Amino acid sequence: MEAHVDSSARVGEGTSLGRFTVIEKNVVIGCNCKIGHGVVLHEGTRIGDDVRIDDHAVIGKQPMRASISILKERPPVAPATIGDRVLVGTGVVLYAGCEIGPRVLIADLATVREDVTIGEGTIVGRGVSIENQCSIGRFCKLETESYITAYSKLGDRVFVAPGVLTSNDNYVGRTEERFKHFKGVTVERGGRLGVGSVILPGITIGADTLIAAGSVVTTDAPSGQIVLGTPAKAWRPVPEEQLLDNQGWKE
């Protein structure tokens, strides 16, 4: 079976479509893209030039709401947008309302929820989950199986090691009071989160701060410090040669 392309969709010159791919109404695909087998592009999705989307990826999925959910119904979310030269791996799910900047890599089995922005050149590793209402800066690295909770904000050049966990609910799912206090984490420019670290709700990690592996961060972490332990405490300044502005990067 060949790809199903709705008559209202537009496919740019030089773009190839895999078998069993579904392209719904008003989808726009740029030039010289490669769309794999079994890909689903939901209604209104916009894709730039020179984009590669691997097998069985789903782009523009509308969010779900459980029948017993306390969340209110909402109108359909705006279509997903993918910039030029983006790479999307096998089995990736990008929800409607996400905006993916140019030259982003989203590796196999990652999930990006609705109303998320990802800046230019960022790498989203295998199996990473980015929940709704998050902002991810430019040239970040989110490594394998890390979890970015809803309502979080990561600045440019943030590094998130494998297995990092973040949270936005200090009430752990109990009492109505929690709905007044949902707050994700903030990691300022150049912040680094070590492997397996845990960042609790509403915490701010300062610019150029390094959170050591396995730490549990329960209070804001000051800029430019190495922070470690359970609960985490500032230990000493980050060495000068490790500071972001001393790396010689152009951007």
What do these coordinates show?
With 251 residues, this protein is mainly β. The protein has a single domain, classed as UDP N-Acetylglucosamine Acyltransferase, domain 1, CATH 2.160.10. The protein is built from no helices and 33 strands. It has strands spanning 4-5, 10-11, 16-17, 22-23, 28-29, 34-35, 40-41, 46-47, 52-53, 58-61, 81-82, 87-88, 93-95, 99-100, 105-106, 111-112, 117-118, 123-124, 129-130, 135-136, 141-142, 147-148, 153-154, 159-160, 165-166, 186-187, 192-193, 198-199, 204-205, 210-211, 216-217, 225-229, 232-237. A hairpin with a 2-residue loop joins strand 32 and strand 33 (232-237). The N and C termini lie far apart (45 Å). The model has no long low-confidence stretch (mean pLDDT 95).
Task: Please write out the topology.
Elements: E1 4-5, E2 10-11, E3 16-17, E4 22-23, E5 28-29, E6 34-35, E7 40-41, E8 46-47, E9 52-53, E10 58-61, E11 81-82, E12 87-88, E13 93-95, E14 99-100, E15 105-106, E16 111-112, E17 117-118, E18 123-124, E19 129-130, E20 135-136, E21 141-142, E22 147-148, E23 153-154, E24 159-160, E25 165-166, E26 186-187, E27 192-193, E28 198-199, E29 204-205, E30 210-211, E31 216-217, E32 225-229, E33 232-237
Parallel strand pairs: 1-4, 2-5, 3-6, 4-7, 5-8, 6-9, 7-10, 8-11, 9-12, 10-13, 11-14, 12-15, 13-16, 14-17, 15-18, 16-19, 17-20, 18-21, 19-22, 20-23, 21-24, 23-26, 24-27, 25-28, 26-29, 27-30, 28-31, 30-32
Antiparallel strand pairs: 32-33
Please describe the structure with a list of short key phrases separated by commas or semicolons.
251 residues, mainly beta, 12-stranded mixed β-sheet, 10-stranded parallel β-sheet
